[in-house]
Specification:
This protein is α/β, with parallel strands linked by helices. The protein folds into two domains: 160 residues, NAD(P)-binding Rossmann-like Domain (Rossmann fold, 3-Layer(aba) Sandwich); 92 residues, Orthogonal Bundle (ProC C-terminal domain-like fold), CATH 1.10.3730.10. Helices cover 47% and strands 12% of the residues. The protein is built from eleven helices and eight strands. It has an eight-stranded mixed sheet, with helices on both faces. Strand 1, helix 1 and strand 2 form a beta-alpha-beta unit. Helix 7 crosses helix 8. The protein starts with 8 loop residues before the first strand and ends with a helix. The mean pLDDT is 95. Bound molecules: NADP nicotinamide-adenine-dinucleotide phosphate. The site of NADP nicotinamide-adenine-dinucleotide phosphate has 26 residues, from helix 1.
């Protein structure tokens, strides 16, 4: 159960990510009446969730509200327009959380003033409560606020606090963008299976369920990935033959090094 400081949790934007967080908060026991959603037109499923749970809703920031938490989940490109009208919600004990990719603490401070602020980077599996989030807070974030933000973020999966704001770019490159790498792995395995003689749709079903099942095994097992890999690799067997290719000097590791470095560089560029 998330401990709620005085003042509401104000969610800005009830789209994919904001909606997943709202749904997680309600499931974890946050009282709907302690949440205020500001969104000019939440998607129908969110409008129903809001109405069914007694969550307050407004299309713009109401007067006379000082938020305990302002959780910003709008697209990065609208942040510049969305932030200034939120300033009246920020009081001395408010903590601001932004999940907007690439928007720095300095950018947020320019619009909302010098407040306790956290940048967080969740990922798409947050939609099913199976994401992972990297977070960094500025020096104004108190231990109690950090603990409250941690509780709010962890409804979508584990939360990892990083040591510098720049680390958020690396988090973006690894776990923020990471689900796409795994989906592409499925595509590559399916295509290779087709080339090995399987019908395309069968190869895709096999690849998809293999990645999903291996992911679930990794999730449930206490063993780390390399131990699980070794467990299915008999010396001289088929898996060993494939891994000799994947683990060669010009195999997957250098490719991943390049891919993650490219994503990190792009995250830095977008942050300006
Ligand atoms: N989705 C992910 O996996 C993921 C991962 C990491 C970080 N993020 C971050 O999460 C943020 C939201 O992404 P998303 O995919 O959830 O976007 P989204 O589905 O478009 O949700 C944004 C919501 O904000 C609403 N909105 C627009 N203008 C608003 C305003 N002035 N005040 C309040 N609400 C407003 C939008 O309404 P309309 O649709 O009517 O415009 C929409 O309901 C982004 O900054 C993204 O970088 C997302």
């Amino acid at each position: 159960m998330v401990a709620v400081a005085s003042g509401p949790i104000v969610l800005i934007g009830a789209g994919n990510m904001g909606g997943a967080m709202l749904s997680g908060w309600l499931k974890s026991g946050v009282n709907g009446a302690d949440i205020l959603v500001i969104d000019p037109g939440p998607p129908p499923a969110m409008a129903k969730l809001i109405a069914d749970n007694g969550v307050r809703h407004a299309t713009s920031a109401p007067d006379g509200v000082e938020a305990a938490v302002i959780f910003i989940a709008v697209k990065p490109q609208v942040m510049e327009a969305v932030l200034p009208p939120l300033k009246p919600l920020v009081g001395p004990s408010t903590v601001i959380v932004s999940v907007a990719a690439g928007k720095t603490l300095a950018f947020i401070e320019t619009h909302l003033g010098a407040a306790a602020t956290v940048r967080a980077m969740p990922n798409t599996p947050a939609m099913i409560g199976r994401g992972v989030t990297g977070a960094f807070g500025n020096a104004r974030v108190s231990d109690a606020q950090r603990s409250q933000v941690h509780d709010l973020l962890k409804v979508s999966g584990p939360v990892e606090w990083v040591e510098t704001e720049g680390d958020i770019d690396a988090v973006t490159a690894v776990s923020g963008s990471g689900p796409a790498y795994v989906f592409y792995l499925v595509e590559c395995m399916a295509e290779a299976g087709r080339k090995a003689g399987l019908k395309a749709d069968l190869a895709m079903r096999l690849a998809r369920e293999t990645v999903a099942g291996a992911g679930e095994l990794l999730h449930q097992s206490p063993d780390d990935a390399s131990k699980l890999r070794q467990n299915v690799t008999s010396p001289g067997g088929t898996t060993a033959a494939a891994l000799a290719v994947l683990m060669a000097e010009d195999g997957m590791q250098p490719l991943f090094d390049q891919a993650i470095a490219a994503a990190r560089k792009r995250a830095e560029e977008l942050a300006g």
